[in-house]
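ARCHIVE CARD
CATEGORY: sequence design from structure
SOURCE FIELD: tokenized fold
FIELD CONTENT:
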């Protein structure tokens, strides 16, 4: 087996290395409510920036960055539209990943920036950054705890809707509904 990179491997690897910029752009648009603001139809960038509290030029750059990924598109009249795929960033649509984007970027992004240190020392990034384990850090923060709970419910609902929908549980056993999964996700 050759370890010589194939044509295109450098480009593919560079795309992976830039993944953090995509994650941040997705988070920012979700947090600002860009997809939500576009659910009723396309808007011009100034209007969209106004309703989301963003700078028009900066928001337009982020939207242009996400358009090739199929999140947004520019209509013939120059207005910005959200795609069905991009609509998953809105909080109140079926299959929403809004809470997941908040959870990952608001609780995991910074610790993953310390992954090299963790691998070298064995100390978890949460212990290093927050002075305590992750659950001890998040539990006293009601807003983040609510985001975590919503994210976990969203993930489990997604699994129920796709992966688990074809799985047959043994007779007499049922899986929990999303309504049963609405309590806080924290250790007892």
């Amino acid at each position: 087996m050759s370890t010589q990179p194939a044509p295109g491997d450098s480009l593919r690897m560079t795309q992976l290395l830039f993944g953090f910029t995509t994650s941040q752009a997705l988070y920012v648009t979700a947090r600002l409510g860009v997809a939500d603001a576009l659910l009723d139809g396309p808007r011009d960038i100034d209007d969209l920036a106004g309703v989301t509290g963003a700078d028009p030029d900066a928001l337009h750059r982020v939207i242009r960055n996400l358009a090739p990924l199929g999140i947004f598109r520019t209509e013939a009249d120059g207005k910005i539209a959200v795609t069905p795929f991009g609509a998953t960033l809105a909080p109140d649509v079926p299959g929403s990943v809004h809470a997941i984007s908040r959870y990952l970027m608001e609780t995991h992004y910074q610790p993953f920036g310390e992954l090299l240190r963790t691998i070298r020392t064995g100390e978890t990034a949460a212990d290093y950054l927050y002075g305590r384990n992750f659950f001890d850090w998040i539990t006293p923060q009601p807003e983040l705890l609510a985001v975590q709970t919503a994210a976990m419910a969203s993930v489990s609902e997604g699994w129920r809707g796709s992966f688990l929908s074809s799985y047959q549980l043994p007779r007499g056993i049922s899986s929990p509904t999303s309504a049963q999964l609405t309590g806080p996700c924290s250790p007892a």
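CARD ANNOTATION: The beta strands are 72-74, 80-82. The chain has a mean pLDDT of 88.
SHELF: design records, drawer C
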